[in-house]
Amino acid sequence: MSLSRRQESLRGLILPVAILLAWQVLAWRASTPLFPGPWQVTLSIWKFYPQIVGQIGYTLMRAASGFLVAAALMIPLGILLGRLKTVGAIVEPIMDMLATLPPPAVIPVVMLFAGTGDAAKISIIAYAAAVPLLMNTYEASKTLHPMANLVARSLRFSRLETMLRIDLPASLPMIATGLRLAVASALLVSVTAEMLLATNGIGVFIQRQQENFQIANGLAAIAFISIVGLIINNLVFQLEKRWLFWHYRSSDTHGNG
Amino acid sequence: MAMDVVLSAQGLTKTYGAGKDALQVLGGISFAVNRGEFVSVVGPSGCGKTTLLFAIAGLQGVTSGTVTFNGRPVTAPPKGVAVVFQDYSRSLFPWKNNRDNVAFGMARIQGLSAAQKRDKAQEMLDAVGLAGFADKYPWQLSGGMQQRVAIARGLASQSELLLLDEPLAAVDAQTRADMQDLLLDLAIRFKQTCVLVTHDVEEAVYMADRVVVLTRRPTVVDHEIVIELGKKRDQITTREDPRFLAARHDVMTSIRGQRAHAPASAA
Amino acid sequence: MAMDVVLSAQGLTKTYGAGKDALQVLGGISFAVNRGEFVSVVGPSGCGKTTLLFAIAGLQGVTSGTVTFNGRPVTAPPKGVAVVFQDYSRSLFPWKNNRDNVAFGMARIQGLSAAQKRDKAQEMLDAVGLAGFADKYPWQLSGGMQQRVAIARGLASQSELLLLDEPLAAVDAQTRADMQDLLLDLAIRFKQTCVLVTHDVEEAVYMADRVVVLTRRPTVVDHEIVIELGKKRDQITTREDPRFLAARHDVMTSIRGQRAHAPASAA
Amino acid sequence: AENTKLRFAYLLADSDLPILVAQKNGDFAKAGLDVELTEVQGGPAVVAAIASGSADVGYASPVPPINARLNGINVKMVMALGHEVDPDKKFSWLVASSASGITDLAGLKGKKVAVNANGSLCVLTLADQIAKVGLKIDDVQQVVLPFPQQEAALEQGAIDATCTVNPFYASLSKNKAIGAKVLAEGVLADEREPVLNDVIFATDDYVASNGPALKTFGKVLFDTRQKLLADRSAMEAAAVEFLGLTPEAAKDFTLPVVKRELTITEAEVQVLLDAMKRADMLTQDMSAKDMVANMAP
Amino acid sequence: MDGFSAFALLLRFRALVSFLIIVAVWQLVAALGLAPEKYFPGIPAIVSGFLGMVANGELAAAEWRTLLRAMLGLAGASLLGVGLAILSDISPAFRRGFAPIAALIQPIPPAAVVPMAVFMLGLGPKLYAFIIILVTVWPPYFNGVAALASVSDIQIRSGQMLGLSRWQILRQIKLPAAMPEIFAGIRYASTISLIAVVVAEMLAGHDGLGFLLVRKAFAIRIPEVYALMFVCAANGLVLNAIVNAARWQLAGWHLRMTGQPA
Ligand SMILES: Nc1ncnc2c1ncn2[C@@H]1O[C@H](COP(=O)(O)OP(=O)(O)OP(=O)(O)O)[C@@H](O)[C@H]1O
Ligand SMILES: Nc1ncnc2c1ncn2[C@@H]1O[C@H](COP(=O)(O)OP(=O)(O)OP(=O)(O)O)[C@@H](O)[C@H]1O
Ligand SMILES: [Mg+2]
Ligand SMILES: [Mg+2]
Asked: What is the ipTM of this complex?
């Protein structure tokens, strides 16, 4: 059993290794500094990691703040809109419209009201992270099985109670997916916002390297972002295992034990 | 028992869908339930018993007619009414363990601390024979066990009016008998009024002070049979009582009679 | 009927969970079913009937023991076995209308065109009394109607072995009788072997050539009672037949007897 | 005969107006060139377009091609499109808002100054100008902000000063709410000799094998530019059409032309290299020798 | 029931209504003078900027390109995302290998890889496809993986009983059951595919709305910049209408079951 698990995880390594190899081969064949391979990137990481780690701190702080603001506002809002179906239906298109505004186009507007400091960047990050959270929460809560609602009503739960005690837990699986997407979105926009208006952060580092054609250094920084993404993702996964086991329970009962 | 009417339904009709998809389910149902009374409702599958119960509970509107509970018209779930749903597996929350699912039934009871509610929930689980399963989750239980958790939740609320939609359909004969007695016992102890939907004619008669027999769609009340067996019932003696047998026969014939009238259409 | 064994279970044990959460459900169940036989299984709620049926169907592994179907060990769902699940409301597909849900039961039948399958599905729906509901969706039906759709799907597959897990728990007495006769009729017509889990002792006896009585957890076979009533049954005469009454009595006592042995523990 | 293909990548700026006009009028085609224009955002993108083979020839400020060369991307500057020179032919400015209280270059210390991109001509401008008063680039807070957003940022106080070019300079210098104070003019502090502002460049390979095409391209470009310089109304019309200026803004429009010819010299580039060295944009001394291959007609 | 019909009307034209709400809020902020008018013009100025771009035809051309790219990108990314989710569902080895890759790639800002991507893919459609897919596959993928993993075991067993192959179970049971959740992902993907197209056009494009946006910004035509932003927003509605139509086709049962307005 444990052997086959090891084999499984070894097989899981095939794909990443294959991708890295393919990338390296492509890079060799391209033979230009604009297209470095994993090897050059590794060298860059070795050279720049103190600087990168220092800068990524700013980026993460902003990403985390934006993400938290978004989560605190959007999960309740999504559940609320899902419950007040008619209001939700009317507000839905507004959500669709605001969600499609590209952050680089929004930045100038945000800047008008929030300046170029951290406040502006955090608002933009929050805005970007809000979309997947709101959409997944809203979809989950508006499409709950009708039975859950009947039970809530028969227990004479107020709307608020129903949202808190039934809609929220029942929507958690989809919210968790929304969280994953939002985390990535927050990181991504945090970096992008830095590239567009910033004085520090990993985005600035990347941009500076790129505009100086040090693509490998830029990729080294990106690798760090990716790893942060991976770590956060695993964290979410752990939380899911802890809090959502009831949702994925079927995985251990079906099939032949 | 004073003849004061707790619940009354007047001319309830309900049509699902519209246009060519329209399906009239309730065709004008009227009946009343007195305080402390135990009323069984029987009727063919799909005739609208669940629909009727939902209307009484204020969970779903009707097309016409009114329901009053303690004299006030019901438009939303009123205080003092609890429901045990037919779809037990979906009515339990998979993210709560069984104890918490039962404690959920007491969510609106004032003056009980969380710990007290949990104790009470444990007590109810003991009563339905699931003492050892409080920490398990509903999806770790068999169908009949889930159904008993649902009953425990309904009982935990100690509501004035308890609506039970085929609450014992998934349990074995022996457990069923035990649960019947438990329900009767608690109903008397807490002076609850109960409406029980069941397919088991014996059960309908055994439990009830009155049996309401429904027709097929569009459903109306076909017949009401008063069961003169007193409040005290016993699995052996009651079931052998000639009045029980007579009442059972009555209900049976009344159901069969309907069938004779409309044999062709779908049940 | 030749005594050739279609299905046999040998020493099945099943433990859910592990460590301190472990719960042994099956304690070593052995029994066999012959071709064309109709076997009823009764046992207390939560004793492991569904677990047993899943093991037979190859849907869930056991901790030890083997199941063989037509002489071959069952490790995955074998061809020629159909199941009507206890959790009917969840086993129907909400994205298919009822006709398509039933037609789905014929998914693996070769040599039938899609149109033929639909016709056949319609026929099955007619047989279970849901002629007018073919175009509706399962969630537009009452509990009992859903259960009948599930039965129709099981029957449509015309499998060699049909496993029924409390298939009639949610229908009224009259429909239940009709469905019982339908099941018996089709089983004979299509030479099906059937295993029926039920809580209704009368039903168990009425339907079966043999009744298997299970004990409580850890469950073993307590008793097997052969019903000597011949293949032809009738709702009135069979139920009045002294052999029927005797068999029913037997089963009842056997169930009661278990209870006497273990009164304290949860059912 | 078949026209020679020339794929041209550029970022939209005043200097390449003649190219756009020539293309519109079909002058390239008449000269036997099949020019395909690709507009991209920013100098590094022009370099990337060329290095990737998406384009043959590019237009940008001199900093991106210099940086490219330094990093192993073999491009050469082949023509000069614009210069600055003392005293009044100046096309970049360092400007502070009155609210910032900055009155001279020394006042920039510790302040927020916008530049349009990293490694851009603007960074060089800032570094070279403040070096006059003994400041280093790290003594100011650089904020990367695209030109269009700088005016609002100045007015809102989000930044204290900025490095700007036209038409943005024209717009913000008229904005009373900003009360723009010009701190310095020109890319370099010392512009007694013309300083290179805009260049055309191509890969070494392309230069080696397509000399004639480049020369033809330069010829058409030169002729068109002369025509525009001679005809003010045509110039304004072109500015409205291609740069999207409003007709009023176009009235102030000028091409940054100091030298009539398109000729580029190593000396011009060396001046910039030295300035970049002073500004710490280069780590070592560099020679302009490999960076220039004059292809002007 | 006068109130009811007014409500129904509101629901029917909710897209228009919400657009008007946004316009109204905008105008309110502009009228209150919270930001200088030059940078935050009122609706009339934006409308005239819009009409100007309509009149000279540049808007229609840009809009059509951007929308087409977004639609193609969305379709491609959705198919790919769902395809990857399906692969992850049928092959645990693939899931183990791909999950970390997904987690690694997902937070990479497209702006950061554009220079490298331009080198590999040039400035043409391949670049757009790459950028759009890089950011747009994840919602259908993650929602798909989660939804496929949580299909009711009773339903899967029903399929197993009929002797359906894994593939048939996937196609006939898991996918339909997962469809509602997958569509929630596609819906989010539709918004980011538009964003990705516009950003790609801004970074490395030579036509389309994003390009026009930058161009107008560099020409200091602020009302037109905002007019373009409103067009971007309206595109969100268009794309969502398309997604919703597909959803009614593929998961209409779910909308009806949960009683949602059409
Ligand atoms: N997934 C599971 N995890 C843990 N325990 C389980 C699980 N499924 C079933 N059980 C336990 O196994 C026992 C038998 O369950 P099973 O569903 O087989 O009973 P059953 O005889 O069908 O009961 P019923 O008549 O109530 O349907 C129960 O005690 C239940 O708690
Ligand atoms: N949501 C719905 N949409 C359309 N029709 C419905 C809906 N719910 C119920 N019906 C129809 O209403 C009728 C009555 O349903 P109901 O559930 O009340 O029956 P019931 O008497 O409880 O039946 P059972 O004994 O089988 O539970 C059925 O014919 C059913 O098809
Ligand atoms: Mg019902
Ligand atoms: Mg069971």
From this structure: 0.81
